[in-house]
């Protein structure tokens, strides 16, 4: 477990810095002894994931990028949904996100960035709280009411922003309203100036969440149209239609 985490830390360090690093710089960023870092780096170099830029510095090769592209190209969820997500982005102009529940969080599986200069930005792999994110609410809305009441009573509802719903009563009422209308909304509850609308889509027996997100004031104006397009996409996917 620790070695796997350290390996990922190496690549995240290069992502953060955006330039070659010396062995000592990398060890300092990873907060590990230089000797241990040397062994990890040696393995990654031997496997073709790092190379020596010069006698002192290291940088990742394109191997991990090419591997990631081949893996993503075979993602069964994205093969089915990518075209729908891009069409929804084109129709709304806003950022479209595909996510799934992972324990007590939502993991973003795919993000199609909005077309506007000012837009909501996110990255695949990000984890968001269930109770404060639109996709999280859509996932909670899939839980039977009795089980949901138990979940609400047993989980802390931390304030992510001043708008986050932090009591079981307020969040439970919001989820019930969203379940009734078929979609869920966040108004600055996860990011203060961002609004999102999300719904659950059932694919291969699994609930996934799709959200349209953007600046709060602009989303308020376009909410009705964005929701209509989102629900139309849900119907098309669940009916087995081919993507546009």
UniProtKB/TrEMBL annotation:
Gene3D superfamilies on file: 3.30.450.40, Winged helix-like DNA-binding domain superfamily/Winged helix DNA-binding domain
Domain of life from the UniProt record: Bacteria
Alphabetical UniProt keywords: DNA-binding, Transcription, Transcription regulation
Ranges for domain IclR-ED: 63-244
SMART domains, per database record: HTH_ICLR
SUPFAM superfamilies: GAF domain-like (SSF55781), Winged helix' DNA-binding domain (SSF46785)
InterPro entries from the UniProt entry: GAF-like_dom_sf, HTH_MetabolicPath_Reg, Tscrpt_reg_IclR_C, Tscrpt_reg_IclR_N, WH-like_DNA-bd_sf, WH_DNA-bd_sf
Full protein name: IclR family transcriptional regulator
Native source species: Skermanella cutis
Record lineage: Bacteria, Pseudomonadati, Pseudomonadota, Alphaproteobacteria, Rhodospirillales
């Amino acid at each position: 477990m620790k070695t796997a985490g350290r390996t990922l830390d190496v690549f995240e360090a290069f992502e953060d810095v955006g330039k070659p690093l010396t062995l000592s710089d990398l060890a300092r960023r990873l907060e590990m002894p230089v000797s241990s870092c040397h062994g990890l780096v040696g393995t990654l170099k031997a496997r073709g994931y790092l190379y020596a830029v010069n006698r002192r510095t290291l940088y990742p090769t394109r191997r991990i990028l090419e591997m990631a592209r081949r893996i993503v190209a075979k993602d069964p969820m994205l093969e089915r949904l990518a075209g729908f997500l891009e069409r929804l982005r084109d129709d709304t102009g806003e950022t479209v996100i595909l996510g799934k529940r992972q324990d007590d969080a939502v993991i973003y599986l795919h993000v199609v960035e909005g077309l506007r200069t000012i837009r909501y930005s996110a990255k695949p792999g990000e984890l968001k709280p269930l109770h404060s994110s639109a996709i999280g609410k859509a996932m909670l809305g899939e839980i039977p009411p009795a089980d949901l009441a138990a979940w609400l009573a047993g989980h802390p509802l931390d304030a992510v922003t001043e708008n986050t719903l932090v009591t079981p009563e307020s969040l439970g009422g919001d989820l019930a309203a969203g379940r009734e209308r078929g979609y869920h909304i966040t108004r600055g509850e996860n990011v203060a100036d961002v609004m999102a609308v999300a719904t659950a889509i059932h694919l291969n027996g699994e609930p996934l969440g799709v959200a349209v997100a953007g600046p709060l004031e602009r989303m308020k104006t376009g909410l009705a149209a964005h929701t209509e397009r989102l629900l139309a996409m849900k119907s098309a996917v669940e009916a087995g239609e081919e993507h546009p």
